[in-house]
Amino acid sequence: MKLGIIQQHNIADVDSNRKRLIEKIEKLAAAGAELIVLQELHNSLYFCQTEDVNCFDLAEPIPGCSTQAYSAVARQCHIVLVTSLFEKRAAGLYHNTAVVFEKDGNIAGMYRKMHIPDDPAYYEKFYFTPGDLGFTPIDTSVGRLGVMVCWDQWYPEAARLMAMKGAEMLIYPTAIGYESSDPVEEQQRQREAWITVQRGHAVANGIPLVAVNRVGHEEDPSHATHGIDFWGSSFIAGPQGELLYQAPQDQETEQVIDIDMKRCENVRRWWPFLRDRRCEAYGGITSRYLD
Hints:
- The protein has helices at about 15-30, 65-75, 155-165, 185-205, 265-270; strands at about 1-5, 35, 80-90, 95-100, 105-110, 140, 145, 170-175, 175-180, 210-215, 215-220, 230, 235, 245, 255-260.
- By secondary structure, the protein is of the alpha/beta class.
- The strands form three sheets. A six-stranded mixed sheet has the order 5-4-3-2-1-15.
- Helix 3 (about 155-165) runs parallel beside helix 4.
- The longest helix is centred in the last third of the chain and has 22 residues, at about 185-205.
- It starts with a strand and ends in a 21-residue tail after the last helix.
């Protein structure tokens, strides 16, 4: 499979962000990409640095203007496209939603972000209702895609459930970066932990994994912090956790990467983790904590 990723620095102008993304999608499709993955909340700045009710104006219904635009480019370029939108489901009810388009422009499926963080500069619980569609892969012409979003990256249970339902690839649109007050050593530990845990998901489930992050500095409108330096580093890992590609930490990037999907069959024969699971011993996993 030829996979395209777009790591972009966003600005406040939504139309400009969308226009640049569509131009890059067309460029990657012309280079042979069959599947293209965008970063989390790619239409706008990462607005969750503050709690501001006016930011709900950025949300859109699905289908809506954005789905119409991305549907058109998926159809025009004959690609499968993974997008990440701020969904307005109803007045006062919003989700962080990945929408996957088939090559004919139709919506192949949706995923609503399940794990919602609430940390300084990442006030997502203010904006997003937790997802209610479960961990269900989306069937497309390029395979069964286990699409999740950003904070879901840290949870092995989510990756496992996607794999158990037949996902052939794990995909995470992402928006994560450094808070400038952290020491450089701590910043790098965080970035390496983010990469390591996801490579572990690829290994444990014997399937490739794609994480596409945004890049560049975005100011905190409240000036309570120094803003976020999104650390880029978008990457693709193979079914043994091997890095097939990693983007720079500080540059916009568009790249097409070849993935040998047939390797997964051999890797799972060598390391049959699903065969050897002791399902009857895992009952406690559904508890919050085992006191």
